Amino acid sequence: MAKETLYEGVNLPSDPNLPIWLLTPKEEKLVFQRWRKKAFERCDVYIKKFIACSNSYENPIEAMVKCKAANTEQMQCVAEYQKMKYLDEERDILVKEKMEKRQS
């Protein structure tokens, strides 16, 4: 029977018969959520810059035109951190956490 393990408030079954590096669909979802969250955290300065720019205009279409540079900056930043190498890093972090929890 799989044992429930808590990761960031999400119960994830961990079957001791499966290899530690094999991630369940719930674990993959958690990895994806962490990856996305970290990408937006790393680009927070650019995102806030775009929000400040767009909030300074009442007309959303005018804001889109006037804040195009800020929008491009934030989109490029997020795209940079949403590459597969960062997703793989998050997978490695979760596998390491699983190993640590299994040892304790």
Folded structure, characterized:
The structure is a single chain. The protein has one domain. The protein has helices at residues 25-42, 44-55, 60-66, 68-81, 84-103, and strands spanning 3-7, 10-14. The chain has five helices and two strands. It is mainly α. Helix 1 packs across helix 4, helix 1 (25-42) crosses helix 5 and helix 2 runs antiparallel to helix 4 (68-81). The protein has a two-stranded antiparallel ribbon with strand order 1-2. It starts with a strand and ends with a helix. It is elongated and about 60 Å long. The longest helix is centred in the last third of the chain and has 20 residues, at 84-103. Helices cover 68% and strands 10% of the residues.
List keywords for this structure.
104 residues, mainly alpha, 10% strand
